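User: I'm putting together notes for a lab meeting next week and I want to include a structural view of one of the chains we've been expressing. I don't have a solved structure, so I'd like a prediction I can at least talk through. The sequence is below, exactly as it appears in our construct file.
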Amino acid sequence: MRLLQQCRRDDPEACNALLALYNRKIFNTAYRILGEESSAEDALQETLINVYRGLNRFRGASKISTWVSRITVNVCLGMIRKGRNRRFVPLEEDETAQALPARPTPYTDPLQHAANGELSTLVERAFRLMSDKQGPVVRLHDMEGNTIPEIARILRCPVGTVKSRLFYGRQEFKEVFNALLHQRTLACRAVN
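Assistant: Thanks for the context. Below is the predicted structure for the 192-residue chain, given as structure tokens.
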């Protein structure tokens, strides 16, 4: 990539352009892992710094997007371990999450919009309750669309480990999600 070569020659405009290409992807990945906008912004800044510092060490063995994703996930997991993202905001209260495109709006389909909002809330809560090892793998694969080899490179673990975490993570997600759904159903019955 020509932009990468220009960055390695200390061209500040090229570096800004390269980092700008990945801002949205980094933020979205961080937001999905951390579940909170200000923590995702912190992760974005830390990731951009790490990417900038590591540009000269990037060998090109993988796609640059995979390398950036690996750095993002590592930054987020580090934040989780340090407890820097403990404030969780329900998805329906977060303006950024509500502004995501390609979903029905209250004006186009109010019932579908409400159902999607409830489903999104349950999915996000389920991911927050999952283990630190399996949750990120399921997110990266099933929500971000990364392949198993890409996830292995991002997390720096063997492909077999990713497959195992994905298998057990999907089971864990299903159990947690169904438990949350059951709680919600009981709460709705109690109200009615």
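A couple of points you could mention at the meeting. Residues 85-94, 96-104 have pLDDT under 50 and may be disordered. The CA atoms of residues 53 and 79 lie 19 Å apart.

User: Perfect, that's what I needed.
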